[in-house]
Amino acid sequence: MKLNFSLFCLLSIFVLIFGCRPENVDPACLPVSGSLTNIPYLPVPASAAVPVGFPQMEVPPDNPLTIQGVELGRKLFYDPILSADSTQSCFSCHQQSFGFADGLGVSDGIDGISGKRSSMPLINLAFNHQGFFWDGRSASLEEQALLPVEDSVELHNDWDDLICKLTQHDTYPRLFREAFGIEDKIDITKELAAKAIAQFERTIISGNSKYDKFLRGEVFLSDEELNGHDMFFDLAMNKVRFPDSECAHCHGSRLLTINEFRNNGSQEAATLADFEDAGLGGITGNLGDNGKFRIPTLRNIEMSGPYMHDGQFETLEEVIEHYSSGGLSSPNTDPLIYPLNLDAVQKAELLAFLKTLTDTTSLNSPAYSNPF
Ligand code: HEC
Ligand code: HEC
Q1: Higher pLDDT, 18 or 343
Q2: Residue to substitute in 107, 135, 235, 247 for testing ligand 2 pocket (most ligand atoms within 8 angstroms of CB)
Q3: Residue 94 in contact with ligand 1 by CB distance below 6 A
Q4: Ligand lying nearest the CA atom of residue 246
Q5: Separation CA 159–CA 151 (nearest Å)
Q6: Whole-number Å distance between alpha carbons of 232 and 319
Q7: Residues of the chain with pLDDT > 90: what percent?
């Protein structure tokens, strides 16, 4: 009995000392210095091919696109070194085959903890200048890229620790030198890592769907798709057979989003203070902004379900049903959201048009794929 008790004490001490050590933090990680000046710094400007009819791409003057910067950003984007336990990268929740979303309702982070919002497709972000995330809380891609690494439900890492690992890495010091001209390994910073990721993200462009080809006069749409197109853009002459479905007021332009914030009736709320997720209002502090979310692009929409900020709809059929029935009621549901009362044929036509927005070129482009 006595022996057992001593053993118990000994075990407890052992557990106390070793059991509570934070996992995944490498206590031996000390940033390594080392000159890189023998590696040439010859950045080559990269030009992303902007499809005809797209808006101007505005690149911040202090982060021009270079071949080397994009290459580094792509590696970082796909490298699980970014997460505390080296199991996840940006790619885990932003997969090319899902239009750079993740096919989940709400995204799971490294600890298997679910976030409260659905992942967003990362396409044509270079053309958005009105804030990133569902609630617009991040002003630029450079600023945005700093956040997932330390987010407790995303990569749950520590930038100091990550930078330390990058200074010790076999290839990253060279890649940072080639992209940004740093002179020593110790000069790797999170700001440079974020700049590189932002450069890579700006190159992810979708502009070669059947709909784009139709606009360029290369293909015809089927009658069904064309009818859906005309309803989507409120273009049909026969408004009884093809009622205006108002979509393009919000999902308009070649980007299939005007990138503004609206309430499309995705949440029921008795008063402006009752939204489960305040969205834009949570950032601006303006009650009238509660319940508003960034209007997402509909490019590759067939691939990026479940839908809405909280992934409440599994299928596009459910989304169309939502708009057809007028959405959920709240004090600031947008006036463009009202019961469209579409019949089965009209719903099928709208769906057929949405499927013309799938762009297999961007879904399969080797330039955006996993380099490892
Ligand atoms: C655990 C899943 C997860 C990981 C890992 C993750 N993201 Fe995200 N990402 C999300 C979710 C969820 C959102 C929407 C969050 C919100 O709006 O609150 C999002 C939004 C974004 C957006 C905004 C897109 C837009 O149109 O506004 C960008 C850009 C982005 N992520 C880039 C990254 C990068 C870069 C990394 C890696 C450094 C990364 N993400 C890692 C889940 C993830
Ligand atoms: C008043 C502006 C507005 C109108 C009109 C509108 N939408 Fe939306 N749409 C939004 C907003 C805002 C969201 C995101 C809401 C959220 O996440 O809660 C959205 C989300 C979606 C989504 C899900 C996207 C994703 O990535 O999860 C689809 C699909 C969609 N809309 C299709 C349509 C179609 C089809 C129509 C026409 C029948 C339409 N929308 C009309 C504003 C609008």
Answers
A1: 343
A2: 247
A3: yes
A4: 2
A5: 11
A6: 14
A7: 78
pLDDT for the residue numbered 114: 57
pLDDT in tens, 168-187: 999 999 999 999 999 999 99
**What residue's CA is closest to ligand 2, atom 33?**
247
Per the rule left: phi > 0, alpha: psi between -120 and 50, beta: everything else, 124 is left
Q: Is 137 within 8 Å of 280 (Cβ atoms)?
A: no
CA 148 – ligand 1 centroid, Å: 7
Letter for the amino acid at 17?
Answer: I
With cut-offs at 50, 70 and 90, classify the pLDDT of residue 286: very high
- Cβ 200 vs Cβ 74: under 8 Å: yes
Tokens 């009819």 correspond to 53
Residue nearest to atom 10 of ligand 2 (CA): 295
Ligand 2 atom nearest to CA at 249: 5
Contact 118, 311 (CB under 8 A): yes
The closest alpha carbon to 296, from 142, 156, 99, belongs to 99
Question: Residue 157: what pLDDT?
Answer: 87
212 lines ligand 1 (CB under 6 A): no
- In this prediction, residues 359-369 reach a mean pLDDT of 94
Residue of 77, 85, 90 best suited for mutating to test ligand 1, as the one with most atoms within 8 Å of CB: 90
